[in-house]
Design a protein that fits this description.
Helices cover 65% and strands 0% of the residues. It is built from twelve helices and no strands.
């Protein structure tokens, strides 16, 4: 028998055993603490499963990243169940009681996690405390981390830019261009980054840039309709100018596709 075939035969039982241990019923049976206080029927099954796995992961390795993931999962679980409490169960009212208890415990867990992580400098947690609790301290600490390695993530740079847009256009633009430069080949681009670049260009009356980013945005999967002709409200461009700007659009789109986008040099 070939070595590769022998390895596959030996590895398959181990793989199946690992998968079996990772099944939710087996997790709940072997480690019931990960499933305690959760509802038992089929509602919000995805959110319940995700929360159980997040609890298990946090217990396996305590870290800011796992605390953040658990916070997101318990929040999603709570938000899924909470609207269901308005439903009146005429046959089995214990189901509603089950959910009432689960929502209560989920809220308590969220509050505890928020308290436990308020002093963390993990950027996503700082952003969460600002967005959900209005913590000015968390906001200020998040902005101060702008150049740290852990901040070099497109969505974090976009969030940084949104905090800076009203008071520091230059830093906001830098963060947005940095966000685009962090994408790799064939990554899905967060079109909100392009929309924010467009907003900045209009605010600064850089209408050629606005024209360019409008057309870049229209080529991405953006949720809102883009009116390319609206730029004529602000400025009219000659055919030659439009040709040059269109070339910029095509260059930017190609760079984003290939993961080679680089921020423009400061003027």
């Amino acid at each position: 028998m070939k070595k590769k075939q022998m390895f596959l035969l030996l590895a398959t039982p181990l793989f199946l055993a690992a998968c079996d241990r990772d099944r939710i019923p087996n997790i709940c049976e072997g480690t019931p603490q990960f499933c305690v206080d959760l509802h038992s029927d089929g509602w919000c099954k995805f959110e319940r499963t995700a929360l159980i796995r997040a609890r298990k992961q946090q217990a396996t390795l305590i870290s800011d990243a796992n605390d953040y993931d658990l916070l997101l999962k318990v929040s999603a679980y709570h938000d899924c169940l909470d609207p269901l409490l308005a439903i009146e169960y005429t046959r089995r009212k214990e189901r509603k009681t089950d959910k009432v208890d689960a929502v209560y415990h989920a809220k308590e867990t969220m509050n505890q996690l928020a308290a436990d992580t308020k002093d963390s400098d993990y950027p996503p947690l700082l952003l969460w405390h600002w967005q959900h609790e209005g913590s000015q301290q968390a906001k200020a600490r998040f902005i101060k981390l702008a150049d740290r390695p852990e901040m070099q993530v497109p969505d974090l740079q976009n969030s940084l830019a949104e905090l800076l847009m009203l008071r520091d256009h230059a830093r906001a633009a830098h963060a947005l261009h940095t966000a685009l430069s962090l994408y790799n080949k064939s990554d899905v681009i967060n079109s909100d980054i392009i929309a924010n670049l467009l907003t900045l260009a209009v605010r600064q009356k850089r209408y050629q840039d606005a024209w360019v980013w409008t057309r870049v945005l229209s080529n991405l999967d953006y949720e809102q309709n883009i009116d390319e002709g609206r730029m004529e409200t602000y400025a009219r461009f000659s055919d030659g100018e439009q040709q040059q700007m269109q070339q910029r659009v095509e260059d930017i789109l190609e760079q984003l596709k290939q993961g080679t986008y680089r921020a423009p040099s400061p003027i």
